[in-house]
């Protein structure tokens, strides 16, 4: 009996001996300084991996492990995280970011209103469960020259590092430029990064991206949630997520990372399942000069290309041998003539994908898209798939939406019967040639109203979108507070000081409040969505369900983890984390005890 008790004691001791020697990898991203891992006062110097990653392997006695990071900025100064991290047993080692407590957060998925667009391929770049990091290194003199003339279309060479919780990717021959139009006037600039190629490798099937400053949006998420709902409609749209940006070691801020719509790689992935096109496909951008009364409403003004109403369309394709006006005459005027013929009953159709166009208009109407086609005809693209002889309307730039400070009362309260509203400071008529022509057919109008009703029952339903807003806001709140704290911004000569948040309170109000009082001059996102949905439902006699419908499933975000972690074996993390590492002494003792046990049993 005593012997059996002895054997039992030995057998019970073996797991404890094995458990005491687990080797765990810790990884952190630090743009400046050298990180130190701190576990209960015991500090471990971390070694540099691929910049900005640092890592260290530590023997851990028990789980969960509580720890934080310290970054030594120089020999005499260090900054310590003021929160405690926790690592559970068998948890993978992610690239954590210094001084950010939240690394990965999965969000509630939106229900699909319609099936996905059939030619679209997701990119893992747009996994929105984390805030990525982009580090730009360029010549300081060239950067200052770029800032000195923000209206110039200059590109400068740069080394660009993209880092996520799962990977670090470096592009040594990137091109860096300013982006946007009115955003060039404000303190926080927007950027474009192109030539993201390393040999044949690109950044998750993207070679060009936009970094949108969201300077007018206290919430930072209007572009994001607008795009999420458009995804639920099965309509082609630029994808977006969040990233923190550093240039030459300097804090720049939190940005919306978005697709560059005119880039060939994006067009392939969106309209052709990632395959190369067999023909040249033209793409155009339409703008709006509301004060001058010239805008891209898609109306036909005759065949004279010198008509100023055609100057609003700009060719953005690859053919640089001909002037933009030549392309407009060849492509846009014939399309507008088709629309005009349909409007006047001389044709049964026109070569625009009317289904995605109608869905885009339904979303503009519900979301109060102030600066888009139905209100101020511009901020959209026309892309032609030549092989299909089909044009696609591609909406863009959604930050002026969901009650932001630009005629918010009109956007919230104008009913469908009176839409679009007339703006007192704009010379824009209410007619919209293709939309008016389509809606003049009772069956099309009924279908259009069905699209609106479907949105109110699915992805535009507060029960669907509010939890997602909460989750996205939780993910980026620390970075939003960091962004607000960065002063001055990088534009040395801003001509507009609009929309600069002074503290994090504006962010909290804009993302969390359901009360009418939002940020200065506007409404909070939730108040706008809730009120707009109720107003439209009352007008169109739609019954909004308390719980959203999800009969077509949900819009699933791409997962950057799926492939990257599987192939990320450069430092043995998959072996080191969550698996048992036994040192030689423990191994010898364990074998000895096992032999003794077997001998006397």
TrEMBL record:
The keyword Signal applies. The keyword Signal applies. Keywords: Signal. Residues 1-21 form the signal peptide. InterPro entries: Spore_coat_CotH_CotH2/3/7 (IPR014867). PANTHER family: INNER SPORE COAT PROTEIN H. This is Coth-domain-containing protein. It comes from Neocallimastix californiae. The lineage of its organism: Eukaryota, Fungi, Fungi incertae sedis, Chytridiomycota, Chytridiomycota incertae sedis.
